[in-house]
Design a protein that fits this description.
The complex is a heterodimer. Chain A is mostly beta strands. Helices cover 0% and strands 60% of the residues of chain A. Classes of the chains: A mainly beta, B mainly beta.
Chain lengths: 114, 119
């Protein structure tokens, strides 16, 4: 059974610093890995999707990497801003008896201190 | 705005009530999903509809009843819920229809959710 782990559960950093969020998964037979952002009491916004054949994806100040063989992904945020404060979730997509199954981690709650 | 709208945003109901959650997507997508998000637990997939056919029912209790009248609308009918059903219920959509299950590397688009409290 796939398990997705995100450590730490919460992280606080001063504004302007670069930071890395971590995600690990137990079964490397995945189709893709996605990073989402969730603001309090709201839905998820997809930030980046890395296909299993890719190593990284970039969008603005965000860079996500994928090492499928070791079951790890990182989300790098450059020059952090208070508006980056949110919970960040990673999720992997895998086959499950002919269907796609998305398994989420529990997230890292990020606070950027002005 | 992600193009996926959920109503109501908040709902408080008693264990004997019957209520419905509504989701509408304006993206022209063919697949829609219900997820449950409980505190400190990963999102749990509840139901998947692809081209209005239910393709996934993830061992959800029968007190939750989904309905997908067309590819743009999805409902979750609730009756005789338990306090442990209190959670954020999220609707999502994606492009694929019948290709569900072929590793299509799709992005999911989520609504803002309905925060449900069962008393």
């Amino acid at each position: 059974k796939q398990e997705v782990t995100q450590i730490p559960a919460a992280l606080s950093v001063p504004e302007g610093e670069n930071l890395v969020l971590n995600c690990s998964f137990t079964d490397s037979a995945i189709y893709n890995l996605q990073w989402f952002r969730q603001d309090p009491g709201k839905g998820l916004t997809s930030l980046l999707l890395i296909q299993s054949s890719q190593r990284e994806q970039t969008s603005g100040r965000l860079n996500a990497s994928l090492d499928k063989s070791s079951g790890r992904s990182t989300l790098y945020i450059a020059a952090s801003q208070p508006g980056d404060s949110a919970t960040y979730l990673c999720a992997v997509t895998e086959e499950d008896f002919g269907n796609e199954k998305l398994t989420f981690g529990t997230g890292t709650r990020l606070t950027i201190i002005p | 705005e992600t193009g996926v709208t959920q109503t109501p945003r908040h709902l408080v109901m008693g264990m004997t009530n019957k209520k419905s959650l509504k989701c509408e997507q304006h993206l022209g997508h063919n697949a829609m999903y219900w997820y449950k998000q409980s505190a400190k637990k990963p999102l749990e997939l509840m139901f998947v509809y692809s081209l209005e056919e239910r393709v996934e029912n993830n061992s959800v209790p029968s007190r939750f009843s989904p309905e997908c009248p067309n590819s743009s609308h999805l409902f979750l009918h609730l009756h005789t819920l338990q306090p442990e059903d209190s959670a954020l219920y999220l609707c999502a959509s994606s492009q694929e229809g019948r290709a569900w299950g072929r590793g299509t590397n799709e992005k999911l688009f989520f609504g803002s959710g309905t925060q449900l409290s069962v008393l």
